[in-house]
Amino acid sequence: MKCNTCQRLGHFARVCRSKSVSRKPYESQKTSSKKTKAYRNVRAIRRKDSDSNESCIESESEDEQILFMEGQDSRVQITINGSNIKMVADTGCRQNIISSQLYTEQFKEHPLESTTKQFVAYGQKVPLTCLGQFKASLKAGVMTIHSFVYVIKGQDESLLGRKSCFDLGIFKQVKFVKQTNSNSKKINDPRLNSLVNEYNDLFHGLGQITNYSLKIKLDPNVKPVNQRLRRIPLSQIKQVNDEIDKMLKDDVIEEVPEPSPWVSNLVVVPKASGGLRVCCDFRELNKAIVRERYVLPKVEDTLDALNGSKYFAKIDARSGFFQLTLSEECRYLTTFITNKGCFRFKRVPFGSSDISETFQKVMEEILFGLKGVEISVDDVIVHAVTIDQLISRLHEVFERCRERNLKLNPKKCEFGLTQIPVLGHVVSAKGIQADPVKTKAIQEAPPPANVAELRSFLGVCGYVSKFIPNYAELVEPLRRLTRQGTNWTWDSEQ
């Protein structure tokens, strides 16, 4: 048993502790074509092109890191020249690659042709040994294509390249992104669809942001809390168990290998769509966490930055927090108990006290230096004066996402907008206006029956307060009712 990451004996790559030290931060460099090089999260290889006789190669000078989705079931059955093998469907890799061991076992009757392509292991400068290439027919289901297969010396897994993934129908092209907000108006520019299709690997699967691992700091004076199991209603157990199984499959959680002094319970929250959101009650743990303070952007600053732009795009990170790795040394803190046993998180969970600040910091690091980009935790707004400028800026953002293996949610992304809602405001070429959704909610709101409902109503009013003349004077009779010791009376003054 040999690790494919550190090349040592005695463990697999998935549990290798050398990953965190071998994957060092890097700086993006530019090719002669002024494109940012796409170094992506991988276990394996990047290639250096010195010949360009195939349509899937973009540039002779461009380096590419091959994306390997560790912890996800991305293997597919492929028939190559009549032999059935398992390959990793890898949308970050442009070539089809097999090991020399597999070639010797199943394909040695197909002579190798020489190639000048070079493949380099992540973090290394010395190319791996590419023994050559052979022409092959690749079949998946009823689809058959013809392509080259490259043979690398060693025993690594077989990788099915991006072009082959789409040609065989394993992944589908993202043709459009659904509009999700009635206040978002958009233009139809075919270049936007082309851009999304070029980066469609960003819209599949759950990512794992590279070069980051969160370490939770604890106050040593706070005693650990080990909670007993809270029973979940019988009607919700199946849905909760299904969600746990999904998180196990996505490599978000793992079974607890040893007892933990910290044990929390699940919290089940109904979704508007009808499903259930499974979270953890980390209130006791949060009391012990030494919170990292990081300033979140104010809505006024975001509005100032957007003012003057005419075209916009909304980008949403898919299950954003789950794309952050949780350091192994502090995973025991996130142990939670269920009717199926105890589990703990391998990714950063919802509910920890400083997660918003942490994700904001990481997102700003990923997109640092890009113009026309505003970040609010896991939501990103890209804006520009012209549509050409917007497309250029989106290209830069997508490249950064690819570099760090940040995946996006196609259901919540919108491109080519001419107006965009921002926390109670609508920004367009005309300037900043009150969001009609908020104003309608205020106009149609029934009279509050108690202090709690009144505070909720005032909270909604706060979003559009700057557009209401003499707002403070108008709401004073209402605020008076929220003060401690005031009797509740709702009459003509209110």
TrEMBL record:
PROSITE patterns linked: RT_POL
InterPro entries in the cross-refs: DNA/RNA_pol_sf, Peptidase_aspartic_dom_sf, Retrovirus_Pol_polyprotein, Rev_trsase/Diguanyl_cyclase, RT_dom
Coiled-coil intervals: none
CDD domains for the chain: RT_LTR
Pfam families (UniProt xref): RVT_1
Top-level division of the source organism's lineage: Eukaryota
PANTHER family noted in UniProt: INTEGRASE CATALYTIC DOMAIN-CONTAINING PROTEIN (PTHR37984:SF11), PROTEIN CBG26694 (PTHR37984)
Protein's recorded name: Uncharacterized protein
